[in-house]
Each structure stands twice: as structure tokens, then as C-alpha cells.
Amino acid sequence: MICIRSHRIIVFLLFGIIIFSGCQQTEFESDTQPFCLAIHGGAGTILKKTMTPEIEKEYRDKLEESLQAGFNILKDGGNSLDAVQTAINILEDSPLFNAGKGAVFTNSGTNELDASIMDGNTLNAGAVAGIKKIQNPINLARLVMEKSPHLMMVGEGAEIFAQENGVEFVTPDYFYTERRWQQLQKRLQEEEENNKSLNNTAHQKYEPDFTDSKFGTVGCVSLDQNGDLAAGTSTGGMTNKRFGRVGDSPIIGAGTYANNQTCAVSATGEGEYFIRSLVTHDISALMAYKNMSLHEAANHVIMEKLTKLGGSGGIIAIDKNGNIEMPFNTAGMYRGYIDKDGKMVISIFKN
Amino acid sequence: MICIRSHRIIVFLLFGIIIFSGCQQTEFESDTQPFCLAIHGGAGTILKKTMTPEIEKEYRDKLEESLQAGFNILKDGGNSLDAVQTAINILEDSPLFNAGKGAVFTNSGTNELDASIMDGNTLNAGAVAGIKKIQNPINLARLVMEKSPHLMMVGEGAEIFAQENGVEFVTPDYFYTERRWQQLQKRLQEEEENNKSLNNTAHQKYEPDFTDSKFGTVGCVSLDQNGDLAAGTSTGGMTNKRFGRVGDSPIIGAGTYANNQTCAVSATGEGEYFIRSLVTHDISALMAYKNMSLHEAANHVIMEKLTKLGGSGGIIAIDKNGNIEMPFNTAGMYRGYIDKDGKMVISIFKN
Q: What pLDDT sits at residue B302?
């Protein structure tokens, strides 16, 4: 009799616990939707020994400013697209990163910028490439997404669209920074010395720029209080680039991808490999179709698939539950996040 | 005793059958690698009632010529990239399709062409967009893949690269066809009548061209005797397009994708939706990660996912075993294939 009674009590208690934990779970899901944000400022041969403490501090301060500005939007109930745009604007306006103000020079001494943005809720996206007169390419990418029936616009056409939509132009000298100009001069000199000029050599391959500016890109991924994901990427391209080369930054599925069902991803690295591998969409596909976690999918794509193909770079990614991943196979990647507990982490080198 | 003996005989026979069928399988796989090819000439509102028998015959003849030329290369032991390029060249050189010679006019009366090609064996790819002086954009896309370290080049830069590699230019009048010019005039007139000009209307959306030329694209997918897959796509874009709009045709993973592990796919349709959905890479991902057959993956992506998102168009695809799929959600799609048994099928309308 005692046995049966205690048995009943245990069943009762277990039942209560299950119901209670169920309520807790529901409450947690509806009331405490996590929100968080991650950024990158490019990956490449960034080594501690070649960086002074002063320069490192400059980078860290700017990454912190960007993270904080984006996170404040999320904290105030703002949406992921605004957070992504705001965080990227701060990196674009800094001469430290290869995007916006700090864009590298092309072979002909111009600056040609690319950017893309994607809304994980609607799967809408916008992209621009080869633009020369816009201070914040990520803003133009968003304008393309929201105010045109198109997804991608390039060159002068994109700027005519910008003008018709009231976007102010900057003059070419806005993008002049001594550091980037010297990078181009150095590259041109090396090219001359190596007699690698393509101008009179049909059918000859030339080496792209393999300095630290090669992987110069900025990006942001965000999860907001509505559970909406967004991703954005902006770049100044490659030092000494020719031929209207377009990398992965403005290519949806390569440089940028967001889908509320899986994750938001922004990439930085050797664009050609990222396009061939559809890196950002592939991470999403592995989660959706193979039930991989963000950790598994992001690491599989960067550390195994991309690396095996011979590509270098990294990504930042957030999933719908607020997990953050930032794998890269280079020496360093400017990166940072504020997680769902509000904790900020900023890193540059490999751990 | 008899029982044991017959039991032994049965086991022996079964063993023999298993070994024999194993050999057969191996023999089949090594000696009869299937080869086949499929093409498309665009999808859209192609209706039997609006087409005369004479025009239908013109389309069918040209599709047959393209298929036969591509297939001959495969039959002679040539590779998929050559087959894709040759089949597409024939469609590009015809005024019937919106690619190459038959390219539609932009809003400013120019012709701006896009193309991409991908090698399923190496995952190498090449793409060009916004080019004006090249007779066969698919050839330039292949040149970018094979003779440059880049994957995608746009505008004048792509043409400088072409010139440096000995590609001959055509003059703009090469692309003049009365039919396409009249399509532009009609579109401009409609726009004027509807007072939809964007010139003085900032922030106003405008309707893209929804005539039959909207989905104008040509493409080819191929499987060769080495088991190598390739895909290519070429287009003249949208009638009356503005703003340097780039559609899905030159975007790897959207308009074109090939991977020996899964399939080769070329798309035609509303480019913006195909980019957002990463249509061609998604089909490959569903096969690789969800073990779907080509039939299941292609139909799921076009007839369910793309349709649900509101996008129109279709794809042609071949898998590594020589299965062919050509789903589309429009009224018609110019399409054809020669299958692994050498049987040719050409279709235009819905069955």
C-alpha cells in the first residue's frame, strides 16, 4: 500500500515537473528571444609580431565601436538589417579596413567598391559592385533591395539609381588614404620588377595581390529580438585589381547569406574560392538538409571543404538560437561579437 | 543428406549469382559511362496559340542543330566544357534567342550581355556581366575561367581582358535585330503611357519587363564519357533594363552550377528569385546532403520552393548517371536533350 502510494506521488511529481519545465521552455522561448551580433574586418596574414600595440588598439577600439553601435540597435528592439548596416557603416567610415573610406586602389588608381545585404526573414537581398562615388556601399545595397525590383546592380548604372534615390555622392579623393596609395605603388613596383605586366602579354596569367589587403572585407551578422537574422558584407576589393574583377562580397550565397530557418553568414577571403564553394549558402544548406549545428556546418565548410579546395579566409555566422561561430584558416581575422548574454569579445589573431 | 546437399547447391548458386551480378555492374560502370546533353532557350509565356507553325519550326530546327553539335563532341570523346560551349554558341549566334546575336536592348538602346560556365570536375568557373562587344559571351566566361586568376569580370574591364587575350570585338550593330528593337520601342511607349518613367521619380518602384523576353536565356548542361559534368548559361538580359542590373545568369550557384558529385544545372527565369534561392546550388545541395535524386531535388526546388517564393522560370539538369530533368513553372520553355541512349527530344510548350 505504501509502495503504491509513493509510486503515485512520484508519478504525480514527475508529471508536475514535465508540465512546469514545458511552461518554462515556452516562457523562455517567447519572452527571452536571444539577440546578438558579430562583425569581421577581414582575414589574412595578420601577425602579432608585425603589429604595434598602438595599431592593435586602434583596430580593437574601432571593432568595439562598431559592435556597440549595432548591439544598441538590437537592445532597443531595432531590427537586424539596421544593426548590420550601422555596424558596417562604422567600419566603412574608418580608414583601417578595406571597405568604404579605407578601400584599396585598383590598377588604374581608382577605388571600386562592392557590397551586399540579405534579410533572413524574407530572403530579400541587395547587392552592388564596381561603384566609385558612394561613401557607404552597404547602404546602397540595402536601397537596391528595398527600392528596386532588382537584386544586383553594377557600375555607373548602380550610381544612377543611387542618384535618382537621393543618395549623395562623394568625390574620388574621399577614398584617398596614403597607406592604400602606397600599397598600390608597392604592388606596381613589384609587378614591374617581376616583369609581370599583362599589358602586352596575352594569355599570360598574373598573380593577384597576396598582401594583407587581399582579404580586406568587413561584414556583420545579426539576430534581433524578433528572431530575424540578417547578414551584410562590404569591400574595397583587391589592391591593383584589373578587368572589373568582382569577388564574393556582392554575391549572395558566396559572400553573404541569411535565412531565418538556419543562419546568417558573412565571408572574407579569396573571393574566387568562396564563389566556387558557395560558402555562405553551403553552411545554411548543411544545417537545413543534414541537420548539422552551426558549429559543425561552419567548421566543415571553412576548415575542411574550403581548405581542401585551396582557398583561404573565414566567416562569421549566427544561428537562429544566437550561437556564434567565426572559423578562419588564415593567420588572423579581425573579429568580434556581443553574445546573447551581452558579453563582448574582440579578437585579431589565432588563439 | 539430400536436404543438406541441395542446400549447399543453392548457397553455391546464390554466391555465383552475386559474384556474376557484381562483375556485370562493374563492367557496366567502367565500359559504358553514359554521356548526354540538354539545352534550353529560355522559359516564359510561350503559348502554342501565339506561335505560327513556321516560327515553331525555326525554333525546333535551331534547338536540334545546337543539341546535335554538342552531342557530336561528346560522341567523339570530347569534354563537357567543349560541348556546352559549342551548343551555346549556336544559340548565341541565332537571332531567335535572347543571348548573343538576339540579345534584347537596354533602356539606353545598348546590348549588355552576361554569361557563366562551370566545370563539375574541378569546380572552376568563369563569369562575365555587362559586356557589349563580344559575339559569344560564353567563350569569354570560359576564357576568364582558364586564363585569369579571377572568376567574374564585368563591363569594360572584362572587354580589356578579352582584347588582351586576342578575342575579336564586334561592333554594336552586330546585335541589332529589328524584332528586339521593336520590343524596346513597345516597352518604352508602354512606360510613357503608364507614366512610369523613373527619371523624375525617386523612391518609386518600376515594373521590370514581363514580356516573353523577360526570361530570355540560353543554357546547356552536359555529361561526357569521362563522367565529367559541366553547365553554362548566356543571356542578353532584360528588355529596357536600367541601372546595370545583373541577373542570375552570370552568378555561380544561381544561374549555373556543376559538380561531378551531384549534377550540372542551368537556369532561366526571374533572375532575382533565382539568386535569392540559389536555385542551381540548392538542387546540388539537396542531392548531396539529403540524398534526393535529381528528379526529386530539381522538382522540389522549382515546383515547390521557387514557386512558393513567387519566382517563375525553369532549369535543365543532368546528374552524374545521365538522368535528365527540365522542370519549369511557366507556360513554356524552349528545351531539348539527347539522352544516354542517343534519343533526341525537343519541346517548347507544357505537356
A: 98
pLDDT value of residue A13: 52
Lowest mean pLDDT among A47-51, A53-57, B140-144, B241-245: A47-51
- The rounded mean pLDDT for chain B is 88
**Below-50 pLDDT ranges, chain B:** 1-4, 16-30, 197-212
Residues of chain B found within 8 Å of residue A123, distances taken between Cβ atoms: 276-277, 309
Q: Give the burial string for A93-116 (b: 16+ CB within 10 Å, else e).
A: bbbbbbbbbbbbbbbeeebbbbbb
Residue A41 maps to a domain: yes
**Separation CA B319–CA B126 (nearest Å):** 21
Check A149 against B125: CB less than 8 A apart: no
Report if residue A27 sits inside a domain: no
The answer for residues whose C-beta is within 8 angstroms of residue A121's C-beta and 6 or more apart is A226, A228, A229, A260
Nearest by CB to A289, from B158, B246, B289: name it.
Answer: B289
Helix (H) or strand (E) holding A157: helix A155-164
Band of the pLDDT at A7, cuts 50, 70, 90? low
A272: buried, middle or exposed (CB in 10 Å: 19+, 13-18, 0-12)? Answer: buried
User: How much of chain A is in helix, strand and coil states, percent to nearest 5?
Assistant: 45, 20, 35
Q: Which string of DSSP letters, residue by residue, matches B204-267?
A: -------SGGGG--EEEEEE-TTS-EEEEEEE---TT--TTEE-STTSBTTTEEE-TTSEEEEE
- Closest-CA distance, A205 to chain B, in angstroms, reads 5
Q: If pLDDT is split at 50, 70 and 90, which confidence band does A190 have?
A: confident
Q: What is the largest CA-CA distance in chain B?
A: 100
- Residue B334 resides in a domain: yes
Quick one: pLDDT at residue B9? Answer: 57
* B278 interaction partners in chain A (CB closer than 8 Å): 252-253, 257, 278, 281
Any idea which residues of B carry the catalytic annotation?
A: 217
Q: Which residues of A touch B285 (CB under 8 A)?
A: 281-282, 285-286, 289
* DSSP reduced 3-state for A119: strand
pTM (two decimals): 0.88
Chain B 299-328, CB below 8 Å of chain A: which residues?
A: 309
Interchain pair B165, A203: CB under 8 A: yes
The string of pLDDT tens digits covering residues A60-86 is 999 999 999 999 999 999 999 999 999
The 10s digit of each residue's pLDDT in A82-116 is 999 999 999 999 999 999 999 999 888 999 999 99
Q: What is d(CA A274, CA A248) in angstroms, rounded to the nearest whole number?
A: 6
**Structural contact between residues B107 and B237, judged by C-beta atoms closer than 8 angstroms:** no
Q: With beta carbons under 8 A apart, name residues in chain B contacting A282.
A: 281, 285
Q: Note the pLDDT of residue B8.
A: 63
CATH of the domain at B61: 3.60.20.30
Instruction: Please answer yes or no on whether A244 and B199 come within 8 Å at the CB atom.
Output: no
ipTM for this model: 0.88
Please indicate if any CB of chain B lies within 8 Å of the CB of A202.
yes
**B242–A160 C-beta distance less than 8 A:** yes
In a domain, A301, yes or no: yes
Q: What is the pLDDT of residue B32?
A: 82
Neighbours of A180 (CB within 10 A): 22
Instruction: Indicate the number of domains in chain A.
Output: 1
Q: Cβ–Cβ of B157/A243 closer than 8 Å? A: yes
Q: B151 and A275 in contact by Cβ < 8 A? A: yes
Range of the domain at B262: 36-176+207-349
Out of B161, B206, B246, name the one closest to residue A152 (CB). Answer: B246
